[in-house]
Write a structure and sequence with these properties.
The chain is mainly alpha-helical. It is built from five helices and two strands, in the order ααβαβαα. Strand 1, helix 3 and strand 2 form a beta-alpha-beta unit. Helix 2 crosses helix 3. The model has no long low-confidence stretch (mean pLDDT 87).
């Protein structure tokens, strides 16, 4: 919904099955598009391995920013006063940074 509302274009690294590895061709495509468009941020999810995102970020001299869905709050998080609202605030910070918002 956010992509439609704010006219954003998403290039997904993973397909319909998030556990499947993207092909080297797909990874190179994302690197090429990122470089052509001077992009320096990759958004990732906590539940996915950061390996591919880190690889792409390294190639574009960028950074991986994690977006939390909120369903992965642990009892340890709760002990540290990290709750759903806190995670959404972190998402907002990462979105503002990654989308270069003032």
């Amino acid at each position: 919904y956010m992509n439609q509302r704010y006219n954003l274009t998403e290039i997904a690294v993973y397909g319909v099955i998030p556990d499947s590895e993207p092909t080297p061709k797909k990874i190179q495509e994302i690197i090429d598009v990122s470089k052509r468009n001077n992009l320096h941020f990759i958004f990732g999810e906590e539940i996915l391995s950061p390996r591919i995102g880190n690889q792409i970020a390294s190639e574009i001299n960028g950074e991986v920013l994690v977006l939390a869905a909120g369903h992965e709050i642990t009892s340890e998080d709760l002990k540290n006063n990290i709750n759903f609202i806190g995670l959404m605030n972190i998402n907002l910070i990462n979105l503002k940074k990654g989308l270069v918002c003032q």
